[in-house]
Design a protein that fits this description.
- The complex is a heterodimer.
- In chain A, about 80% of the residues lie in helices and about 0% in strands.
- By secondary structure, chain A is an all-alpha fold.
- Chain A has a single domain, classed as MetI-like fold.
- Chain B is globular, with a radius of gyration of 18 Å.
- In chain B, helix 3 packs across helix 4.
- Chain B has a single domain, classed as P-loop containing nucleotide triphosphate hydrolases (Rossmann fold, 3-Layer(aba) Sandwich), CATH 3.40.50.300.
- By secondary structure, chain B is an alpha/beta fold.
- In chain B, strands 7-8-9-3-10-11 form a 6-stranded mixed β-sheet, with helices on both faces. In chain B, strands 2-1-4-5-6 form a 5-stranded antiparallel β-sheet, covered by helices on one side.
- Classes of the chains: A mainly alpha, B alpha/beta.
- At the A-B interface, helix 6 and helix 7 of A face strand 7 of B.
Amino acid sequence: MDTQAIWLTLKLASITTVCLLCIAIPLAAWLVFSRMRWKVAVEAISTLPLLLPPTVLGFYLLVLLGPLTALGRSIIHVVGHPLAFSFSGLVLGSMIYSLPFAVQPVTIGFSNIAPELLDAARLLGANRLRMLFTILLPLAGRSIFTAAVLCFAHTVGEFGVVLMIGGDIPGATRTLSIAIYDQVQDFRYAEANHTAFFLLAISLLALIAVYGSRKQVHHG
Amino acid sequence: MVEAAFLTAAIEHGVGTLNLSAHFQLDKPWTVLFGPSGAGKSTILRILAGLTVPSKGSVTLNHRVLLQTNAGICISPGKRGIGFVTQQPALFPHMSVRRNIAFGLQDLDRTGRGQRVDEMLKLFRIEELSERMPVRLSGGERQRVALARALAPEPSLLLLDEPFSGLDAVLKESILAELTAWLKIRSLPALYVSHDIAEAYQTGAEVIVVENGRTEAQGPVQEILASRREHLLRQLGATTLPTPAPAPDESQTSPPPRR
């Protein structure tokens, strides 16, 4: 099995999950508690990667981050190289691709918190930050755990976006899903079988973790 | 003797089909906001607490402007110095009783916070529950904790939105007696919402009648609710009216009803 691809995939999934949670938690809080009318548009945009073909997303990112656009040129100027076909580009692409898997569970978790609890916290002088850390995060803990597991597993298994934006560079952008594609192309079915089993096991473990945590809620 | 009003409120607010128009002053230590369900009593309390911002209005507590919509003033709920206890006590389910009571005491240092929490636990006789989680409390215990949590920051006004309606009569009487005694000692006024006419008689010194979103009358319970005598007798199934209980620190020389 391609151990380099395993480590790269796990590194990509871990960094993507942590970065996504940092964005998804405040975004979900805003989506749940804001009264602005245009939040529906933000909600739709954040959910778009769920329906969009990964190759379409990858293509747009490839163009956007390349030297043909002002954004791409600015990034090249700051970072020194284009984000396309680099690990940083993979992280960015993975974050956008897995955004709905982070935002949706956290949004549901925050929505399920009784408004009376938030009223009580406000009456007792809690500001927004204190409310986030003492009420929202502890009470939505299982939803945040679900979001983290889904993000991790989804990133491990992504193919289209990774291939479009990262290409197939060993040690830099070749993840497990790309490796299995290469193995099949080269008729190395035994290796492909091991890689496939590894990906299957990760997906299954992720779902067991998610459903296991839900069971605890019901029996708790 | 006419006492000086410590709270004045003039509120205009549309909520659903109800057009709220409440104008009143509080000058008694114990006032009952009385009216049928859906009359707008809870909305009035939420506006006073700062949880709902009305379309138009002003609220002043102890000469401090809490709300003045035409001047764009709206003090946040946590800075109003108002305690609020509702029928369903919203205890934080992931915090112990002690941590629930300490939640509003962030301005105190660790020692002061501990002392205040201990004082509240003792006052409401819930010392043995201090480390218990809310899910393991009975209805009466939850209400005691909610009261302790609301009173711990030493507010200037306590709002009670039918907090005892889910409790049995004996428990309700016991908690109410402890609460009113403590309010009297601390000179802390309370505005108590009720739609139960018998409860208004039993607890009320001053009554504000709210009907269809309007404050219709204000004055001593005996005078204001006298016109509802027949309705009350039917409700109680009795031949005589209950004797009004003495309100905390209330004199019997209240002014005539204002309309």
